[in-house]
Amino acid sequence: MNLIYSVLSREKSRKEKRAEAVRILDYKADQSFGGKKASSLLTHIGCSREIIKLLKTGGLFINGSPAFTVSILTGGDSVRIVLPDERCSAVPRDIPGVERVYSDQDIAVINKPPFLPTHQSIGHYEDTLANYFAGVFPSCAFRAVTRLDKNTSGLCVIALNKLSAAIMCKNRPRKLYYAVCEGITEERGAVDAPIARERDSMIKRAVREDGQAAVTEYRALKQWDERTLLEISLKTGRTHQIRVHMAYIGHPLLGDEMYGGDCSDINRQALHCGYIKLIHPITKTEMEFKAPLPVDMALLLPDSRTL
Questions:
Q1: Whole-prediction pTM value?
Q2: Which CATH class for the 176-272 domain?
Q3: N vs C: which end of the chain shows fewer Cβ within 10 Å?
């Protein structure tokens, strides 16, 4: 099944302005969709049930005319999807240190500094990445495809509309983390150990037999003075996974007080998401993004280099 994709760039009509359409996507159905419901094409391009339900009330057009998700397609039909504007619920705030690495109509890639929560929570209503996002993308809901702990720095991917979010949840970006840990590790290694919440804590995690499966792979990039700079990839995505696994094998991250790391040279876990590779949800283009080590981690290296 082939879909010919294009994005319509034009000035909105008055009617469309009232509807505050934020994203207009045009597709052409090939002959294989002939005789099928429009919903079959919508599912094929990645629309979730939520989006299809939304399009039942408007926003779907076939050959320029309003249509229903149960409308029958003919091969060669032009199908337009109009995704409505959405407002970010967070209060807009100017957050220092945040870098917008890339953005288009569908995704944004942000380099998050340490000490900044990704989402709002108790005690953090106006000092989060969501607050920064609300100021830069006021017409988009905040949908973080990838997220980082408050004290972890690095790249985050945010979907700017419902369709991008639905597609990327099924085809998640590949991430590489960089960490400085205590001790000299093996040149390459993997930790396969289940992780569960620590019984007496709401936040801390631990390796436990009754936990969820968790696999972490790492390789040493540099070793010096009983310290190792690691490149880490995750096969699963458990809370605090890297921090828990490295502490479990006797190599806690520097600065990670919760899991026994030495805090004498850095006041947060030395962990940074420095590389992301993804398939663009709409254009299907392969994209790569890099972010160098922040200053506090770079200063831990013997020659104070960034990656």
A1: 0.88
A2: alpha beta
A3: N
